[in-house]
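Input chain follows. Return structure tokens only.
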Amino acid sequence: MKRNKKASEKEKMYSIVNKRKEKNELTNGIKRYDEEEKKLINVQELEREREREREERNWKYEQVEETSVQKLVGNRTGEENVKKIRKRDSKETAKEEKR
């Protein structure tokens, strides 16, 4: 009887310890999942911000194209003006990226 009691007590203790381990593993897994989700959300926000910046640049190009076509100078065509302006703007963006 004593052996059975000791064995059953050990089993109870092991089961309690195992349940605690399982609970800790679950909470750690949830924490890891939350951290991964936060990283993913941050990446998505950065992508949205970059997309907005691209749209702004494209909008600026459209505005510049309209004004450059209106302000034709000498023998230049509107396309040459646009190329020149885009070249200038690309240099400016390169300077900003270096910062």
